[in-house]
């Protein structure tokens, strides 16, 4: 029997995916780039590779992404990887359009704390939406998701740990002030990602709590011979 919900679900997933990547593109260009906040994840590592080894970030990001995408293909399946390619492709298009045509300037140089807060909030929602629709916005997101599922750690916490590690390495080529504010944005984003990906999902252990009273009742009945 054909599942009629699949015809509705796929366009909805695509819409959410595009909305998430649009939000990420807007934030990275209009807030992070325009206010000189640094980057975590594979982008931060690629910048470090350029500083230390003189490698092009486009090459470094590709070298970092490919092994993770292959691992995701094996562990998560073709659907996840296809959604991820859609996310990466749409992010590239959206960011390029904003970079070329957007005249909007959000100047928070006098209040980088507000810039970091907005960056964390918006990137957290954007990345969370992409993850909710069954994809990822990059290789570092995939790696965070795989580690989260492997170790049972909240995905937002893994994002924070990985990005903070990269930001500490970024101190080799970036000023301390911008790096610290980026770390603030990363922490906020990690918490928002956790909230966005877990919102509306049943909490673990809920069924266990519901079953325990029934088990107790059966034990009491068996002890009194009423079972």
Written description of the protein model:
Helix content is about 80%, strand content about 0%. It contains nine helices and no strands. The chain has about 230 residues and is an all-alpha fold.
Give the rounded overall mean pLDDT: 82
The largest β sheet comes out as: none
Order of helices and strands: HHHHHHHHH
Q: How many beta-strand runs?
A: 0
Tally of individual helices: 9
Brief account:
Helix content is 78%, strand content 0%. By secondary structure, the chain is mainly α.
Q: What secondary-structure arrangement, pairings included, does this model have?
A:
Blueprint: H1 5-33, H2 41-53, H3 57-75, H4 78-101, H5 112-132, H6 139-151, H7 155-170, H8 176-198, H9 206-224
Helix pairs in contact: 1-4, 1-5, 2-3, 2-7, 3-6, 5-8, 6-7, 7-8
Question: What characteristics describe this protein?
Answer:
mainly alpha; 227 residues; disordered C terminus; globular; disordered N terminus
């Amino acid at each position: 029997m054909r599942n009629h919900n699949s015809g509705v679900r796929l366009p909805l997933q695509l819409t959410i995916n595009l909305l998430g990547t649009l939000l990420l593109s807007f934030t990275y260009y209009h807030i992070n780039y325009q206010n000189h906040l640094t980057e975590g994840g594979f982008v931060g590592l690629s910048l470090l590779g350029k500083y230390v080894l003189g490698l092009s970030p486009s090459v470094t990001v590709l070298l970092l992404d490919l092994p993770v995408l292959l691992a995701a293909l094996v562990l998560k399946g073709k659907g996840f990887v296809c959604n991820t390619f859609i996310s990466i492709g749409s992010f590239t298009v959206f960011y390029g359009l904003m970079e070329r045509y957007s005249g909007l300037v959000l100047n928070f140089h006098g209040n980088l704390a507000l810039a970091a807060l907005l960056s964390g909030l918006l990137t957290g929602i954007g990345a969370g939406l992409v993850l909710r629709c069954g994809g990822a916005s990059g290789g570092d997101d995939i790696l965070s998701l795989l580690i989260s599922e492997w170790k049972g750690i909240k995905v937002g916490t893994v994002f924070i740990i990985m990005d903070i590690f990269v930001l500490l390495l970024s101190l080799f080529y970036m000023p301390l002030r911008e790096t610290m504010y980026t770390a603030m944005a990363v922490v906020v984003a990690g918490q928002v990602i956790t909230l966005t990906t877990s919102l509306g999902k049943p909490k673990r252990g809920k069924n266990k709590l519901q079953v325990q009273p029934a088990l107790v009742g059966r034990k009491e009945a068996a002890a009194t011979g009423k079972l």
